[in-house]
Amino acid sequence: MSAYRSGDIIKFSVNFPEDPSESIANCKPSILGCYAKCGPWRRNRRPESICYGKGVEAIIIMNDGCVTVGSGDGTIDILDQINWKGEFPKGKVLDPNQPHFKALKSTKVEGSITSLELMEGPKKHGSQRLLLAATRTSEIYAINLTSFVLTLVFTCHQNVINDIAFPKGMSGVFATASSGDVRVWCLETCQELLRLVVPNFTCSCVLFAHDGKSIITATKAYTRSPPPMDPRNLRGVTGALPISGMNMISDLRGVD
Q1: Are 92 and 8 found together in one domain?
Q2: Fewer beta carbons within 10 Å, N or C terminal of the chain?
Q3: What are 201-230's pLDDT values in tens digits?
Q4: pTM for the whole thing?
Q5: Are 194 and 210 in contact (CB under 8 A)?
């Protein structure tokens, strides 16, 4: 099988002989069909073909014959082949593909899927099998194939880190500033604790307030309740100008 940016899947045969010693010089591959995901069922009518948004970026053929697909819009599906009985209803000329697959399980992540990899082995089989999915937003997810629950395994900034800051008297967490977001990390586990997303702006610097209740960036201030590990009760204060460096006055009443 082969995936395309048009959002459908091409199934073809390489027509190789069963005997590996035979010559393949005269073997020519042939296309078996152009297939897509099946849409809603309609009585006595051909079901619609659903193509994946932004194309199919990754595909895996499972041992049981199912197909796992990752698309450009972040959709991850496990597809099974539909065994149509009788003559297949004809579609329009503009519909070159057939609704050949039904989705058994589906989920969606942020960002385009770049690759899929199945983790299985002697210690990972059955319900313990995991599907790893990588995205263009620099994240890796682990998906349990039984429950199809997402777990974020790895994440990082997509662009250059412009600044890093630790809260006063606390080395267990730190904040990083980059283009489009500010993140708070746990130093011991290297896991992301909090992400503040502000699209279409670049944070040039970041700092913690002396009491640990606020995170101030070059353009916005997000106030939250202590301690620094607790990301609840966020609120934004707008109006700050873009700057290249800043520091907070010890009385917590201003920033210079």
Answers
A1: yes
A2: C
A3: 788 888 888 777 788 877 644 443 344 444
A4: 0.74
A5: no
